[in-house]
Amino acid sequence: MKIAVVGLGYVGLPLCLQFARNGVQVLGLDIDPAKVSSVNAGKSYIEHIPGDAIAKLVTEGKFTAATEFSRVKEVEAVIICVPTPLNKNREPDISYIIKTGESIAPQLQRGTLVVLESTTYPGTTDTDLREVLESGSGLKAGTDFHLAFSPEREDPGNPDSKVAQIPKVIGGLTPACLEKSLALYGLAIKTLVPVASCRVAEATKLLENIFRSVNIALVNELKVVYAAMGIDVWEVIAAAKTKPFGFMPFYPGPGLGGHCIPIDPFYLTWKAREYGQNTRFIELAGEINTAMPQFVVGRVGEALNSRRKAINGSRVLVLGLAYKANVDDARESPSFRLLDLLKGLGAEVAYHDPHVPVIPMTREHRDWAGVKSVAWNRETVASFDAVLISTAHAAVNYAQLAEWSPCIVDTRNAMAAVKVAAGKVWKA
Q1: Catalytic amino acids?
Q2: pLDDT number for residue 80
Q3: DSSP label of 190
């Protein structure tokens, strides 16, 4: 069997490797020539994916990459793994899905299976994508070609997260579409979870991410409330999670990051309005999480003030640019917002991140592209008036930080196990 995976990013590339390991011929398609060249040279551009894994499959002839979407005519199935961001008005932007559909439609052959994995609102697969594919191919979905939705479930930075071991939810346009999809994913994924429709599968992914967003918002709000009461929310959570039933720990932070949690809930809130429904709970969670960077910067101000300094004119080092620990993915990272806010208040800012040596070009934070991570040594760290821990990478030596920095603002409880002089660490 030969398949195509469109989009060679954090979702598409691991999926390509998993199928190829299981004997499937995989064609990776991407509009970025640099990614295509890297794959064909057996090199990785994602930190947690080893280049050797790519090189082995490329050498064996099981995996190749291209920019020519005309090659879709060669394959039996196409899996779409492209971004679904929000536009400047915080509304869903499914243009990457639509453009991909327009590119592959003229090449569709009868019997081909098309599966969308990009997170989106219910109805995208069986309406928006379906219309583009049918109009561009002259074929009918569910009759001439198969169509399905199967949400991606990636957990970068988690060494225990393996593509083959993560249960795969799948919804087809028709029973035949579902059967075809189950046969495809059964080649690479151990556990399959069939559902009644594409819309159920789309809604499943949104529920997963909204659940996290709402619960993170809850602990973020409690963090602020408990701080006013002189109570450490981290200690409260640690105590609460000893309960063996009825509680699941979530942890506060400086805001939400990544391509899922800050974005996906708003796909549902936008779509719900079409049905005359309000999503007040989801939107409130979004407001709370979005406000966290301002709260953190306020704590930086308090910490500096305790040392008779103002934010204006102070040097502040943001520790961690990636949106989560131990990854090199900076998409939607709250660290960007922290840098913007601090700079706007007159601080001289820099960042250190062992996983992100240079800030890449992003859609939302172009002004920071090309800025380099500062060195990790006593002289450099001590030159800053305050260090703000935004991401708690395991590669950072926090004992050194405690020794070198005069003032630390900790949003991740990273300093909890480190001996620090009294008054040096401020939790935020």
Answers
A1: 260
A2: 98
A3: S
* Residue 390 to residue 426: CA distance in whole angstroms: 13
Same domain? For 218 and 100 the reply is no
| Strands of 230-379, DSSP E | 315-319, 348-352
- Flag whether 371 is in a domain: yes
How much is the pLDDT for 321?
Answer: 97
Q: How far apart are CA 169 and CA 201, in angstroms?
A: 6
- Minimal CA–CA distance to 252: which of 294, 281, 215, 208? 215
Strand extents, DSSP E, 143-287: 146-149, 168-172, 192-195
**What is the total count of domains within the chain?**
2
| Total length of the chain | 428
Same structural domain, 181 and 254: no
Please tell me the predicted confidence (pLDDT) of residue 257.
82
> Residues 335-375: pLDDT tens digits?
999 999 999 999 999 999 999 999 998 878 889 999 999 99
Q: Which domain covers residue 52, as residue numbers? A: 2-196
Which residues lie below 8 Å from residue 312, measured CB to CB, with a gap of 6+? 345, 346, 347
Phi-psi region of 103 (alpha: psi -120 to 50; beta: other; left: phi over 0): alpha
What are the tens digits of pLDDT across the range 402-422?
999 999 999 999 999 999 998
pLDDT band at 312; cut points 50, 70, 90: very high
Q: pLDDT at position 51, please?
A: 96
Find where tokens 């040279």 sit.
Answer: 41
Domain contains 206? no
Residues 188, 111 within the same domain? yes
For the chain, percent of residues with pLDDT exceeding 90: 91
The dihedral over CA atoms of 222, 226, 232, 237, expressed in degrees to the nearest 10, equals -30
Last residue in a domain, options 196, 223, 247? 196
